[in-house]
Structures are given as structure tokens and as C-alpha cells.
Specification:
The chain is α+β, with helices and mostly antiparallel strands. 43% of the residues lie in helices and 24% in strands. A four-stranded mixed sheet has the order 2-1-4-3, with helices on both faces. The longest helix is centred in the first third of the chain and has 18 residues.
Length: 112
């Protein structure tokens, strides 16, 4: 089991902001997973990877692919209190889900 967290690299967010947005995405996607996937991921060490998206469009396209594949996913839209405008999509998490299923969607992305 694995979770991929995709963060927009085009926004120029500081590393603390990136960490916060990635954390929000991870938790929300986890909440959308079924109990079996949650348990398996937790028992397997909660494997995660953080990847780059280069645009808002790319983030939403990846989310649509995840939904079409039946994988839990969540796009985070920032509240706008610090570095980006309110409603700006900043991050996406896909999974926890079987590693091959997550990699089929995110395997071509670069590490953040």
C-alpha cells in the first residue's frame, strides 16, 4: 500500500507551506479510503512519496485519473491566510491504495 502526495511546484511555496499542504492532503485522502485500505496502509508503515505537479491543471487531471480508477484522493484548496490566494489548489493525495495502482497514475512525476 502506498500514498502519493503531489504538490504544485509552480506556486513557489516555502518548504513549511509545502509540508502543511502535503499533510492536509495526506490526511484527507486517508479519510476517504475504506477501513481495509486504512488498516493495511497503517500496518505496512504508511508508505508515502511526495511528487511535483507543474500546474493546477495537472493536479486536477491526476485527481480525475485517480477517481476514474476508484482510488481515494483529495485536492487541497488553501484558505489563503499566508502565501497563496484563497481557494488556490496546492496539493493532491492519492491513496492509500495498492502501490501499482498509485504508480500507474503518478509514476511519471518527479520527486518534490
Amino acid at each position: 500500500m502506498k500514498q502519493a502526495i503531489v504538490v504544485r511546484a509552480d506556486l513557489g511555496m516555502g518548504m513549511g507551506k509545502v509540508a502543511a499542504q502535503a499533510s492536509h492532503a495526506s490526511l484527507r485522502a486517508f479519510e476517504y479510503a475504506d477501513d481495509r485500505a486504512q488498516r493495511a496502509w497503517k500496518q505496512g508503515g504508511q508508505k508515502k512519496i511526495v511528487l511535483k505537479a507543474n500546474s493546477e491543471r495537472e493536479l486536477y487531471e491526476l485527481n480525475e485519473e485517480a477517481k476514474a480508477a476508484g482510488l481515494p484522493s483529495a485536492v487541497i484548496e488553501d484558505a489563503g491566510h499566508t502565501q497563496v490566494e484563497p481557494g488556490t489548489p496546492t496539493a493532491l493525495a492519492i491513496g492509500p491504495a495498492p502501490e501499482a495502482d498509485v504508480d500507474a497514475i503518478t509514476g511519471d512525476l518527479s520527486l518534490f
